[in-house]
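Let us work through a complete example step by step.
Step 1: write down the sequence.
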Amino acid sequence: MNNQSILKILVFGFVYVFAFKEFSYLTADTDLWGHIRFGEEIWKSGFIPKVDSFSFTANGEKWINHEWLTEVLFYLIYENLGSGGLLVFKMIIGWTILSLLYFALKPQSNPYPFAISSLIIIPIMGPGFMIRPQLVTFLFTALLILLLRKFFEKKNRIIFWLPAVFLLWINSHGGVIAGLGIFGSVVVLGWISSKEKDAYYWKILFLTFSGSCIAVLINPYGIELWAFFIDSLSLPRKIDEWEPIPILSFKQWHFKILVLIFLLSLLGKQKKRLWEIGIIAISMLIAFKSQRHTVLAAIVAAPYMTEYIESIPKNIFSKYDIEILSKPVNRTLQIGLVLFIAFQTVLTTLSYKLYDYQVVVEPAVYPTYSAQFMENNKIDGNIVAPFDWGEYLIWKKPKSKVAIDGRFRTVYPENIIRQAWNFWERSGNWSEILKDADIVIVKTKNAGDKGFLKFLNWKKIYQDPICMIYINQNDRNNHILKKYSEKRLIYRKTPPPYYFPG
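Step 2: predict the structure and record it as tokens.
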């Protein structure tokens, strides 16, 4: 093996170790508890629940679970390999995406421009790499880009795999909308720019797109799922990740650099494909409108950006080898890469070991102490809690029901969502959601101890730095109120489990 081959292997090692670090976020996603619980119910019962049974505000309402297949997968991984298995699964998804994006390049492409573009692409992807069903959409988007580019490169029938991809996608995550949108845009833009001699291949592409449109109707809800998607996307979301990217700030700066490089590339002389420029531009515009889509935009843009970077310094990346480097410089690069790979691998592995290779449930993020308090005192009932704690409480308090959780519009009618938002923002008829509630959990940092509930016949029985617990002074809570007045409630200071499920 010559020096150039060794250097290429080390460059790939650099990329994958860098990804190992950036994709190693260990804190549990707010909806992970729900995904595993719902997956367990589907796996054990053998059917997909069509109505809600976890909330008191929407109990019996229709439930459109567009993530059911991924949730079953999450449950099976967790059941057999624990939360560490989910971390391994997440990392495999990330590395597979990077591999697909590299294979989407021309066969003679070298790893050096790919490594440079990865320094921008991977940090954009990193924040999105929580253990959540979106991972499947990221994976299928990379596979879609690979198959499209290979089709245009060789004009072969590899594209016929896409209906099967979309069949899995529609049952795994609602991000299939983005995939079908990308594919449809490619068909339209490709047809506009095609020449007469390419008519046969555009017929193949259109036929495959039609097959994909049929495939996405094969799901437990049929066309009703798409009616839900259309209706849901037209409505606003008061959720941070759905907010626009602020232009004049350093937020999402890696993504803004990517956009700037893309705009500069339009001025270059390298060969451009209208369909590819189009889907990248559309993806970036959508990402600016909703920052949760930055990962998809980065994946869509990655192969094109790598080719653009490769086209800039032709004198450096000639013939896919860095032949102009002297042996001392080559050897220095090798040593530097070996040291980086070793150091970063050890550092990231130690960070995993520090948390026993498990998903972390941060007491500063989730109400772990209050859940322990409620369990110790057998406090159950209808719970009004912050939106991002809903599925944690579904897991921790199976005898209770929540007011709202991360399933959002897949379960909850608009009037319930409005009631929840009014309560937390203290606007409109903010007490409406309390009508059938027994317990309210309030974030201490947001509410403070203003006593805003005591005027509505509510009693505060617990407080810690994260949250406060109020209970309704109704007949259902008489036994708790009696224990509280007699000072018989248990207030243990023993830390709850730090690892998932907490």
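Step 3: interpret the result. Residues 319-324 have pLDDT under 50 and may be disordered.
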